[in-house]
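Chapter review: from sequence to fold.
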Amino acid sequence: MTKPLNGAYIILGMFLLGFVPVVFYIGEKVMSPAIIVALSLLLSGFGSWLAGPVSAPSAIPTPFALYILLWVGVVALASLSGGLEYRRKQKVAG
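The token string follows.
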């Protein structure tokens, strides 16, 4: 059973992993945050699939479990790349 604070952490992560790329795309058509979030999700899911089924509870988390736990880093990386792409677009346009 998920504890309330753990559930809130995961729900906040799900929201921000979708919200940050959408805000960058709507604002200035910046694509890098969406690419980073999508690639991270795909690679973690593929890595977990390659690991195979987990028969017993393990102390070693799957790649997807790490993605869920470390979503803050993915959001930070997506935001940083979006900011850099935005600045590059401003320099080219200006």
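Two observations follow directly from the output. The CA atoms of residues 35 and 71 lie 15 Å apart. Residues 4-28 form the longest helix (25 residues).
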